[in-house]
């Protein structure tokens, strides 16, 4: 089938290294591996002019915001700053709103005479382009929802347009033929805003098992980063407080007396880096920590395979834990035992004592105890890691996700055909 994948999110550089970009490219690649032709359209390719773009899967249709969109957003930003209004998100939201209207016109012109078989849209703030195009060319629409985006915007960034963002998101979800959500928590949210339950399906994040696997090969990450031969705790992700990175310096300090050759490898970049370095120094453990900074996605599995324990120390949040953590599946695919809190989808994916260890969120003693136990038991690490890798290969791959989406689309098509036949039959009877 011919598939149009819409990623209208200005914050996702689809050829860059952000988790959202990896998700987009992985689904496109999986659909192509199943024999489907995919066109990916997006406004942003890379975040920085120095970032080397990844080779895209599928055919790329780059539709950047035109100058009028950018200029209007800049005027609003300057105005808000000038009157000290404090609404730092407003200009960005207006930019997204205006870009949506630009995108709708471009897509209808582009695909009116050459329609895809179905449209797949990654839900983003203010984006109604998928619904508009699906109605214009009469094609099924699948909307992928990764979080309650408008609620996130209101909680973490806030703006005068929060109510409009919520309305647009709910409207988009209600008009989709199929909504796929990354977790049961997000599914419940979609149903709560008016989407029929039978149209909402859970498709968790996945992993590219050609890239993430237990076999050590290729690039020598240990030599490149100067890693020691001692046991290694590892973390991959954005250096942000809600990822739990603030717990890592104390964890390392707690374990070093018992495991003096232990090292902590932190893979990623973010606003918490300076504070993380300060804490490592305050605990006197900076010599046992390696902060890699930004690493390309193809290099990450080589680093993860150096870990003896992979950490996902999410804290309790002010809202429900509705995420489907990408790092979780990538850790597990590499055959590394995971230590993670018993929150949300994590509890369903990581089964305590079977393919990883769970602990109560923010219970530092239990986190330390789980790591201590694994460090002392290489046999247990091997057992849990092997089970984790097998679980991911069988249940959580992008290819499996793509197969599920195609199956759902075909179900919509069959239902539509049946309705047409039923209407035609009724017309003949009435004659």
Brief write-up:
The protein has 431 residues and is of the alpha/beta class. The protein contains 16 helices and 13 strands.
CATH superfamily of the largest domain: Glycogen Phosphorylase B
Mean pLDDT: 92
Sequence of strands across the biggest β-sheet? 3-2-1-4-5-6-7
Model regions low in confidence, pLDDT < 50 over at least 5 residues: 422-430
Number of strands: 13
Name of the level-1 CATH class of the largest domain: Alpha Beta
Count structural domains.
2
What does this structure look like?
The chain has two domains: 2-206 and 398-422, Glycogen Phosphorylase B (Rossmann fold, 3-Layer(aba) Sandwich), CATH 3.40.50; 221-394, Glycogen Phosphorylase B (Rossmann fold, 3-Layer(aba) Sandwich). Helix content is 46%, strand content 14%. The chain has helices spanning 19-33, 67-82, 90-111, 129-137, 149-157, 162-175, 184-192, 221-225, 248-255, 273-282, 300-304, 326-333, 346-349, 364-376, 378-395, 398-430; strands at residues 2-7, 37-42, 59-62, 118-122, 141-145, 178-181, 200-202, 232-236, 263-267, 289-293, 309-311, 338-341, 356-359. The strands form two sheets. The chain has a seven-stranded parallel beta sheet, with helices on both faces. The protein has a six-stranded parallel beta sheet with strand order 10-9-8-11-12-13, with helices on both faces. α5 (149-157) packs antiparallel against α6 (162-175). The chain is globular, with a radius of gyration of 23 Å. It starts with a strand and ends with a helix. The model is unreliable at 422-430 (pLDDT under 50).
């Amino acid at each position: 089938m011919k598939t149009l994948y819409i990623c209208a999110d200005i914050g996702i550089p689809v050829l860059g290294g952000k988790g959202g970009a990896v998700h987009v490219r992985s689904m496109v690649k999986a659909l192509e591996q199943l024999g489907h032709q995919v066109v990916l359209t997006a406004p942003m390719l890379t975040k920085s002019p120095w970032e080397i773009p990844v080779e895209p899967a599928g055919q790329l249709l780059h539709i950047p915001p035109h100058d009028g969109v950018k200029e209007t957003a800049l005027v609003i930003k300057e105005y808000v700053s000038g009157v000290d209004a404090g609404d730092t998100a407003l200009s960005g939201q207006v930019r997204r709103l205006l870009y949506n209207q630009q995108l709708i016109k471009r897509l209808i012109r582009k695909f009116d005479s050459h329609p895809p078989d179905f449209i797949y849209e990654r839900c983003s703030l203010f984006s109604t382009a998928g619904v508009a195009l699906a109605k214009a060319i009469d094609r099924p629409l699948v909307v992928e929802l990764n979080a309650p985006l408008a609620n996130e915007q209101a909680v973490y960034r806030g703006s005068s347009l929060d109510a409009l963002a919520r309305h647009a998101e709910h409207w988009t979800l209600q008009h989709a033929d199929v909504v796929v959500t990354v977790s049961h928590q997000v599914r419940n949210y979609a149903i709560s805003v008016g989407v029929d339950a039978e149209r909402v399906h859970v498709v968790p994040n996945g992993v590219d098992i050609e890239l993430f696997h237990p076999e050590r090969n290729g690039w020598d990450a240990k030599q490149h980063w100067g890693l020691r031969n001692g046991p290694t705790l590892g973390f991959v992700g954005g250096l942000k407080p809600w990822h739990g990175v603030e717990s890592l310096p104390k964890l390392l300090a707690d374990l070093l007396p018992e495991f003096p050759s232990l090292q902590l490898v932190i893979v990623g970049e973010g606003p918490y880096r300076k504070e993380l370095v300060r804490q490592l120094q305050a605990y006197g453990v900076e010599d046992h920590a390696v902060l890699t900074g930004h690493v390309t996605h193809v290099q990450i599995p080589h680093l993860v395979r150096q870990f003896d324990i992979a950490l996902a120390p999410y804290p309790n949040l002010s809202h429900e834990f509705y995420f489907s953590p990408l790092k979780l599946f990538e850790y597990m695919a590499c055959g590394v035992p995971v230590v993670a809190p018993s929150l949300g989808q994590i509890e369903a994916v990581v089964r305590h004592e079977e393919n990883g260890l769970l602990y109560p969120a923010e219970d530092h003693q239990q986190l330390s105890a789980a790591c201590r136990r694994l460090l002392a038991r290489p046999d247990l690490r091997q057992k849990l890691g092997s089970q984790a890798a097998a679980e991911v290969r069988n249940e959580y791959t992008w290819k499996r996700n793509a197969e599920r989406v195609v199956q759902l689309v075909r179900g919509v098509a069959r239902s539509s055909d049946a309705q047409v036949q039923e209407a035609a039959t009724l017309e003949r009877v009435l004659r």
